[in-house]
Amino acid sequence: MENENLKEQFKHIPGWGIDVDWENNPVYPMKDIEEDDKSASWDRPAQQITSKEVQRSNERPKLPAVFGDTLPPAGLSGQLRRYAFHYSESKYRHWLPLLLADRVNEVEGIVADIKSGVFPNIWKERGFDAHWKYDRQKLIKNLATVAAVSIGVLILFRRK
Amino acid sequence: MKAMNYRGPFRVRVEEKPMPQILHPEDAIVQVTRACICGSDLHLYHGMVPDTRIGSTFGHEFIGIVREVGPGITKLKVGDKVLVPFNIACGRCHFCKQGLFANCHESNAMATAVGGIFGYSHIAGGFDGGQAEFVRVPYADVGPTVIPADMDDEDALLLTDVLPTGYQAAEMGGIKVGDTVVVFGAGPVGIMAARCAWLFGATRVIVIDHLEYRLEFVRQYAACEAYNFRSMDDPVLFIKRITDWLGADVCIDAVGSDACGNAMQTITGKKLLLQAGAATALHWAVNAVKKGGIVSVVGVYGPTDNLVPIGNVVNKGITIRANQTSVKRLLPKLMEHVKNGVLSPKDIITHRFALEDVAEAYQMFSAKLDECIKPVLIPSTVN
């Protein structure tokens, strides 16, 4: 009866209680494991073949059947990434070099752009047109802050 | 083909890229007709996720038309219009057999914690994403689902991640009839989590955020209470006060690593990257939930460490449940809810951009300009 009262009370909310199993509440799904699902082996899909360098977590003995092979490691950032993958996902020696590699890779990207004759259009890449259109005041404030901090850092280093 | 191209934190552009190829018998090539920018894409965009390589194409929420299939594909055919779950899952490994499609063990070479995800850095497998004209879709007989003729394309688009993630957040909360549920974050996933909490019999749903326009939206869309944490000294104390000083039965973290609201978390997590993002929402969730309550986490965090009050988890006897969403497991039920009109996910879409304007789209979503809630990208190849 109480449930009926609740259904009446919340009838303005479409679907209220629609997924309640009244006999088995709450309905958080329990693990659904068949006996043969406990095995650590299964009927593996065909193995993807690649000629590219694909990095593999050392917490798995072999490549998964399917993997992404975009953007193989290259340059200094690639060396850092190769180093990182010697260590497990439990180690800072895995993650910190990857974070560093990302920052190095950003510089490599700018250098590669310039080498190919494209000077990065930072205004456009940062989508500042949208910011200019919808919140010009905040954009000007943000750019002024960045400029002030940069000039401050430059002055600090010159003094030293 | 044209594709979004990541150039570093806060910098993206559209560039020509080679057409994707069939690399495995169970691959398909899908021509993208709609792709969302997800709140979790912003973690990549902000440079917070390790191994996000320059040149990556993001995008794990997309629909499209099958243009080519590998020889191992039996269920899909060229011309099918499909929604593609964000998880890349084989459907037959130890984890997929348990319905844990987000944790597939045959799709991510570079990490074992998570299965492959389209366009979500190399720690999620190094796959290109769907913010492009075409995309390679592995295990195309497992994940992709043909969009029913009577379903709106944009409803289908939000079934690839946002709606299932909001639903799973509520489901993992183990909500019982009569429960009070607090959702931290009024972004797209938080909005969906609040809406779905009612389906499990919650009798009070409260959303906490700091953006007034989103709070107003969620009040209307999810028929819930919504409060601005900027207007209170201490959100945890506020929640205790409005829940008879006991706390909420269930707290949902729908924010993840980009949270604001705590200076120390913001500086150490987002500015200095000394932790894997700011864990402010999770911190509040643990402290605001009732003793013996459940904290459900769908907000995305980086793979290293976060400052979380684990002592209070122990002392309060809290259960924490978390996972990436296993979209495929939830699709049949959620497609029914959408078809029956119980849920209308497309209503949260606020902005549509040409793929070529991807940089402006990211900036608008990231800076919360023009009351942006959910932006969609449309390739110019779509009629």
Automatic annotation (TrEMBL), chain A:
TM regions (residue ranges): 139-157
Region listing for Disordered, in residue ranges: 29-63
Native source species: Sphingobacterium deserti
Record field: compositional bias (Basic and acidic residues): 53-62
Protein name: Uncharacterized protein
Keywords assigned: Membrane, Transmembrane, Transmembrane helix
TrEMBL record, chain B:
Gene Ontology molecular function: oxidoreductase activity; zinc ion binding
Keywords, in A-Z order: Metal-binding, Oxidoreductase, Zinc
CDD domains in the cross-refs: FDH_like_1
InterPro entries, per database record: ADH-like_C, ADH-like_N, ADH_Zn_CS, GroES-like_sf, NAD(P)-bd_dom_sf
Highest rank taxon of the organism: Bacteria
SUPFAM superfamilies xref list: GroES-like (SSF50129), NAD(P)-binding Rossmann-fold domains (SSF51735)
Alcohol dehydrogenase-like C-terminal domain: residues covered: 188-264
Record flagged with keyword Zinc: yes
Entry cofactors: Zn(2+)
Domain Alcohol dehydrogenase-like N-terminal: residue ranges: 25-142
Family: Belongs to the zinc-containing alcohol dehydrogenase family.
UniProt-recorded name of the protein: Alcohol dehydrogenase GroES domain protein
Organism annotation: Sphingobacterium deserti
